[in-house]
């Protein structure tokens, strides 16, 4: 069981470069009780790619989550008002 929810959805857009990207992450628990960091990314409005990382300890998943969050914000990704469905 996770101690708190971890969700992130950010976008990076630049009309001059025809750039419209999204990046989403969340940490969940698997059926076996392991922490799983689920990442998805791609062009806004399209199905993107997905990657899952499994960890025995929640702290390891949170460390990767925070590191990736810092990287995305440094590259210009910003939170948006609503996440697409």
From TrEMBL:
It comes from Shinella lacus. CDD domains: WGR_MMR_like. This is WGR domain-containing protein. Pfam families: WGR (PF05406). Residues 5-85 form the WGR domain. PROSITE patterns: WGR.
């Amino acid at each position: 069981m996770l101690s708190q929810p971890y969700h992130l959805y950010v976008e990076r857009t630049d009309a001059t470069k025809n750039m419209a990207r999204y990046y989403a992450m969340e940490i969940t628990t698997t059926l076996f009780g392991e922490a799983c960091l689920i990442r998805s990314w791609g062009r806004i409005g399209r199905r993107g790619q997905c990657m899952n990382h499994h960890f025995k300890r929640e702290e390891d998943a949170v460390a990767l989550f925070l590191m990736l969050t810092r990287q995305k914000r440094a590259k210009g990704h910003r939170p948006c008002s609503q996440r697409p469905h």
